[in-house]
Design a protein that fits this description.
82 residues; Alpha-Beta Plaits; 4-stranded antiparallel β-sheet
Length: 82
């Protein structure tokens, strides 16, 4: 799954690197791209092992703000019942 986020609090390339590094450490993340000029991030991840809420918490833990860009099937942390 790919999810876009609005990111707040970034001011330089070091901020981009820190967010990409921290989010990239999460189990289930395949790819992370942070754009300083657009204050945005796109994460490709396995929604079976990671939630959008966990990604937001990771960004907040790194000292920045993150808000998922709303889509129809947004899952903020609820696991699907199989």
């Amino acid at each position: 799954m790919k999810q876009k986020f609005d990111i707040t609090g970034m001011g330089c390339a070091a901020c981009v690197n820190r967010i990409e590094t921290e989010v990239g450490k999460l189990a289930g993340v395949g790819d992370v791209n942070v754009n300083l000029l657009k204050n945005s991030m796109e994460v490709e991840f396995d929604e079976g092992s990671l939630t959008i809420g966990a990604i937001v918490d990771c960004v907040k833990g790194a000292g920045y703000g993150a808000t998922p860009v709303m889509t129809e099937n947004l899952n903020l942390g609820e696991k699907k019942n199989s």
